[in-house]
Design a protein that fits this description.
The protein has helices spanning 16-19, 23-27, 42-50, 69-73, 87-90, 114-118, 133-145, 163-168, 185-191, 211-214, 232-237, 255-271; strands spanning 3-7, 36-40, 55-61, 81-85, 102-107, 123-127, 150-153, 178-180, 195-199, 206-207, 219-223, 240-243. By secondary structure, the protein is of the alpha/beta class. α7 (133-145) packs parallel to α12 (255-271).
Length: 272
């Protein structure tokens, strides 16, 4: 049976992991075996459990301890700590209304190799230095919905397990395989049989509906950082450079919006 602990004070040390530790402190770079992340809302927690993530503790409104938490707790270790508190305490947590009244601290899963993540994949997304956690979460949600088999990220970008990224993704960061890229990622993808398509505005960019990239058996859709987009050397090294045709004088879309268009055209349409 879970160990229920009622919390009456927002400053209680039991709430530190949820209320006061920064993302970098949760990441715990000096002790990666004990690195954590926070999953928010029952649906996101369920998807994390489905992916094999290990729960460490829960925080929830007292009323949920005998309600919607019951099924989730049945999947957790019997002695797991479940901190419960009234709404007047929990609303001091920034953004608590977005959590649907429930949070779970979990161990970060071990990173997989690129070979493992890409095994069997035909369409993957590559994110070069995408910095905004909201964009990361939105891109993962589009990747899950629109035909991407995996997501690969450069280490300089934002972490898919940052709290906001997990929340915006609606838990799809646990459904789409992902890992980080090394310095020679273009060569590594080529060795795995992938052609690369850079989403960039150049004089030689093809419209995204060009038939050639869509016909590739294995294709990596490469998207760049907010504002500056892809590095020039990345664009030069890709097999294709694609653009989304615009109107009304708009030159480009936000990277998250652009990813949805690209994934649909190069992912969903490829599989039809």
């Amino acid at each position: 049976m879970a160990n229920f602990i009622e919390i009456h004070d927002f400053d209680a040390p039991e709430l530190d992991v949820y209320a006061r530790l920064t993302e970098n402190q949760l990441l715990c770079r000096r002790d990666p075996e004990n690195a954590m992340f926070i999953a928010e809302s029952p649906m996101v927690i369920e998807r994390a459990l489905d992916a094999g993530c290990v729960p460490l503790s829960f925080l929830m409104e007292t009323k949920h301890s005998v309600g919607k938490a019951k099924e989730l707790l049945s999947r957790c270790p019997e002695n797991i700590n479940v901190y419960t508190a009234g709404l007047e305490v929990l609303t001091q947590l920034t953004g608590f209304h977005l959590t649907r009244g429930m949070l779970c601290a979990m161990l970060r899963p071990k990173l997989r190799s690129i070979e493992e993540v890409c095994r069997g994949a035909r369409r993957i997304a590559v994110l070069e230095n995408v910095m905004n956690p909201t964009n990361i979460g939105a891109i993962f949600r589009s990747a899950a919905a629109l035909g991407m088999d995996a997501v690969l990220l450069t280490a300089e970008g934002s972490d898919p397990l940052y709290r906001r990224a997990v929340r915006v993704s609606m838990g799809t960061v646990f459904q789409v395989p992902w890992t980080y890229l090394g310095a020679d990622w273009m060569q590594e993808l080529s060795s795995l049989g992938f052609k690369t398509a850079a989403m960039a505005l150049t004089d030689k960019s093809l419209p995204i509906y060009d038939p050639a990239p869509a016909k590739e058996e294995k294709l990596a859709v490469v998207l760049g950082t907010e504002g500056d987009g892809l590095a020039a050397e990345t664009v030069a090294g890709c097999d294709y450079t694609l653009r989304i045709p615009m109107s009304h004088g708009v030159d480009s879309l936000n990277v998250a919006a652009a990813s949805a268009v690209a994934f649909y055209q190069l992912g969903v349409m490829h599989k039809l």
